Amino acid sequence: MSSSTSTAARPVYLKLREQIAAAILDATFAEGAMLPSVRAYAAAEGANPLTVAKAYQQFQDEGLVVVQRGVGMFVAPGAAEALRAREREAFLTTELPEIRARMRRLHIDPAQLFGEPERA
Predict the structure, then answer these.
(1) Nearest of 73, 59, 51, 71 to residue 22 by alpha carbon
(2) Per DSSP, what are the bridge partners of residue 75?
(3) Alpha carbon distances (Å) from 11 to 17, 51, 81, 93, 112
(4) pLDDT per residue over 55-100, tens digit each?
(5) How far is Cα 49 from Cα 12, in angstroms, rounded to an integer?
(6) Which sign does the torsion angle of CA 54, 60, 65, 67 carry?
(7) Cα-flanking dihedrals φ and ψ of residue 87, to 5°?
(8) Per-residue buried b or exposed e for 21-36, using 16+ beta carbons within 10 Å of the residue's own CB
(9) Is residue 65 helix, strand or coil?
(10) Is the pTM above the cut of 0.85?
């Protein structure tokens, strides 16, 4: 199965969750920043508001965002570092072994990807 197929098969709320996580990691949504409303984010992404609400709920359940009733949802303190640690662990334990195996199958030398270090 190709990566584009596996990406296309993923539920929309997980794709939205990944986009929001990336925005938190990149500080587009910095700690303490208010997230767009469910309706606004749904409209911007062309998604169903219930789907966006499901993605937001996961962040809330994980303690990465906090809700201020009547005000909005905000990125929690420490959210970026917590996400970074989780993403790093997932990459090292799941994605990297798959990448290495695919590189071996395709006879791709890592030096081809990253280049040889320059010698002084």
Answers:
(1) 59
(2) 65
(3) 10, 9, 25, 22, 34
(4) 999 999 999 999 999 999 999 999 999 999 999 999 999 999 999 9
(5) 11
(6) positive
(7) -65, -40
(8) bebbeeeebeeeeebb
(9) strand
(10) no
